[in-house]
Amino acid sequence: MHQIKYKGAQDLGRFLGIWCGAELNKYNWPDEYELILPIPMHQQRIQERGYNQAICIAEGIALSTHLPILSDGIERIKNSQTLIHQNRQERFHVLEDVYQVSDSSSFLGKHVLIVDDTLTTGATMLALGQKIKAAGARQVSFLALAALQ
After folding, report:
1. What CA–CA distances, in Å, run from 74 to 42, 93, 105, 141?
2. pLDDT digit of tens for each residue in the chain (149 aa)?
3. pTM of the model as a whole
């Protein structure tokens, strides 16, 4: 995950996404979802890193599952400091207002699969999931390739 997130290994992210999508296909899980949403990054962070690693992973999943990726409709409007040393409650407090839905019609009545590289506390996914549900999504599910313990 470190290589994907910090060292520019976008192809590795897509490869792991393809593998993950193939595993989902084995259990017909793509039939459950209607839309893939990679965790949005703030524009400043994208400029610093050069890419959003969640998009690389989502692209791979989409290649395997043929599910559409939503690349707009929601954005990260606040660039928070690193959350590495914060607990779940502190992270959620920082993240509760960093996402803004600009097009709720993209989510209306849909089952959305939120994709990220690593699950730490779940606060990022929960904050984003709340915004998507408030925008009218029928259901929200989460997928991360790795989890920290």
Report:
1. 11, 19, 11, 16
2. 878 888 878 889 999 999 999 999 998 887 889 999 999 998 998 998 899 999 999 999 999 999 999 988 899 898 876 656 667 677 777 777 889 999 999 999 999 999 999 998 888 899 999 999 999 999 999 999 998 86
3. 0.88
